[in-house]
Design a protein that fits this description.
- The chain is of the alpha+beta class.
- The chain has two domains: 79 residues, OB fold (Dihydrolipoamide Acetyltransferase, E2P) (Beta Barrel), CATH 2.40.50; 167 residues, Recombination protein O, C-terminal domain (de novo design (two linked rop proteins)), CATH 1.20.1440.
- Helix content is 34%, strand content 23%.
- The chain is built from seven helices and eight strands, in the order βββββαααββαβααα.
- A five-stranded mixed β-barrel has the order 1-2-3-5-4. Strands 7-6-8 form a three-stranded antiparallel beta sheet.
- It is elongated and about 65 Å long.
């Protein structure tokens, strides 16, 4: 038995056997792991309060010999109740958790990813809106080293002009110059303002987002290109996108 204590965020909880649950965690010490919470659905369980989705906890786990860890103890540090008090907040919290689960690597400690994940849930608890969601997507992409080149065409390497419209293709690998854009049938047209917003969000602190003045059009344009970029790097659409479309 290899027992260890770590701070952890609950990304997902799903039933496993009669009274147990599988818990997907992003941990400070070991990265993303899956743990078994035995007996959690029994009325007498002491673990239930420490495995709520999107909560931040101090946990004692046993790594054991299999890929599944065992959750022994859990003390909730931050329940983040505002994430459960509106449909919008709950949906965006679920989306942030899904992104983290898809980009996080099993058993690979990434302290920067953990701190970003924590900051993201705390940010959504006080400001669950489209701008916060776009900012978290941008920061996650940046943290993973996956930001596109904003200056040069992904096809020919020529400078990308930013006059009245910019061109983007997730399948091609980024932004395009006007000449290359003419050769493609499937591409996304976005405003230069939306492209600039992406760059701004890479560096602006999450608690300073309220200082920005953005339009619904800019947020919509940015959402389109970010979704393409996420699919390019994860290989599939996010399940929570259908929920977000209703927000």
């Amino acid at each position: 038995m290899v027992q260890y204590k770590t701070e952890a965020i609950v990304l997902r909880l799903r039933k496993y056997r009669e009274a147990d649950a599988l818990v997907t965690l992003l941990t400070k010490e070991r990265g993303k792991i899956t743990a078994v919470a035995k007996g959690i659905y029994k009325p007498s369980s002491s673990l239930r309060g420490g495995v709520q989705p999107y909560s931040i906890n101090e946990m004692m786990l046993d790594a054991g010999r299999s890929t599944l860890h065992s959750l022994l103890q859990s003390q909730c540090l931050e329940m983040l109740l505002p994430l459960r008090q509106s449909y919008d907040a709950l949906t965006l919290g679920a989306y942030w958790a899904e992104l983290l689960e898809n980009f996080g690597q099993e058993e690979m400690p990434e302290h920067e990813l953990y701190y970003l994940a924590k900051a993201g849930f705390l940010g959504l608890a006080v400001n669950a809106g489209k701008l916060m969601s776009r900012a978290l997507e941008v920061r996650l992409i940046q943290q993973q080293g996956l930001s596109p080149d904003f200056r040069l065409c992904c096809r020919c390497g020529q400078p990308v002009t930013k006059d009245k419209v910019c061109f983007f293709s997730g399948s091609e690998g980024g932004f395009l110059c006007g000449s290359c854009a003419k050769e493609l049938q499937e591409l996304t047209r976005i405003s230069p303002a939306a492209l600039s917003l992406w760059q701004v969000l890479e560096n602006l602190a999450l608690d300073k987002l309220t200082r920005l003045t953005v339009t619904e059009e800019q947020l919509g344009d940015l959402a389109k290109v970010l979704r393409q970029w996420i699919v390019r790097h994860t290989g599939r659409p996010m399940k929570t996108w259908s929920m977000i479309n209703k927000v």
